[in-house]
Amino acid sequence: MTPHAVKYPAQALLIAALAWIPTGAALGDEPQEFSRSKQIAHWMGRVHFSGGVLPAVEMRGEYPELIAEPLETRVDKRARKPVRVNRDLLDMEATQQPGYQAEPYIHANPFDPTHLIAGWQENRFMDGGAQALNVAVSFDAGKNWTESILPGLTQVNGGPWEAASDPWVEFGPNNRVYFSSLLFNKTTPDNVIAISSSADGGLTWGDPVEVFRSFFDFNDKEAVTVDTFPGSPYFGRVYVAWDINLTDSTGQNFISQRLVVARSRTNGSFRKPKRIRNGATNIGAVPRVGPGGTVYVIWSGNPAGDSSGPRLLVYFSRSTNGGRRWSRPKAIAELMPAGVATIRGGSILPSFAIDPTNGDLYVAWSDGRWTGTDKSTLIFSRDGGATWSAPRNASGAPANAPTFTTTVAVNGRSEVAVGYYSLENDPSLANLVDRYVVISDDGGETFGEAIRATRRTFDIRLAALAGASFFLGDYVGLTGSDRRFHLLWVGTKRKSATLERRQPDVFTAMTR
What's the CA gap between 455 and 74, in Å, rounded? Predict the structure, then answer.
């Protein structure tokens, strides 16, 4: 069933109508017009994203070629030369940020290490979401890519929705690929979590299937995972996790965030999501499946009783029966993000990976506890989440250089990689960005010297804007194959063929 095929039941129509009336409004009062921009701004203020201190016009300037010169840096031969993945398929004059990509994600086929799938936001809107979500597939380990606009989502490619966000891609068995997305409108409160799938490895895609739809509560930050372990009793099952922002009767003001997980049926539809936790903040859900079919989810949230403070914890839950029942949420670490001025880098969103060989669990995020600036931080569990290590600094950057948008992955040799953006090659430690990865061959106990994937430092002031913050994405791509790692990121090193100025593009590189 496609999202636009769903009919409003009578009760939902009544609720949707009531959502347009401000709290306390009397009959006959002028109804409050719904505004997605206002709703998102209210939510962003609650969850304490970093960045956003200058008006956009002052930050962007007149599209300079390079606003500051980076330090001299050598080419790192431990990573292959980056490859540009996207080709700017949409109309370059149709939106406020034409040709601006953001929020890239990548996954390697566990049954074929040369088969990769990538997704990202295309033509990012300043006030949230994008004009479309694009997908690209490679069958030669990232050397060449075939790109398309995901069909049936937004109005630019056969869908009913005005905006899309939060692209997340994952392989299943038999070369099937799943792409999860958040779909919404700017002027109406309804929105949906959807799954698109491809039966030919990512070349062609069917219409999206609804996982869950809300008529005024706002769904957000979904992620999908698939059980790809042939010995699992739930082999092939698809899991989607996200948070539901519960609102008051206006549909604009948030009350709390509910963390949920839905599982697929055999016919491809999804069961009603299971509630994992309620609270003032529950965001950044990442589900993963381990050997044997146990499914886990991690996220960040306020501790009980802390309704509005900045204190955040990483939470963990698991299901041993295919997502039917979940363990009581357990706090496993405290997040202390420092953030980076003028940059929105998903500082409160943890990353999660599982070793496909031995089932070890790894969680990483950006944390300011070490030097007062954000550093990529890692914890791990060797016993299925019963106990966790103390946090350790996994960043290879100098002590005074912020690293942001941290991600973690494990390859088939049980090597652990932690990736991040770094400002270490900027003399001012403010705007010039590189993409790095560090690799551990002892289960995250120690890491080798950082590997620089970018060949040229790029200026983030030429990237997309999210409100008044520069925006590459709240998360970034990193995946392990049989013995290597593939990185996917957004950089601003090249000119657009149409606009003749530097702007974002999606790049990938592989470790040697």
Answer: 8
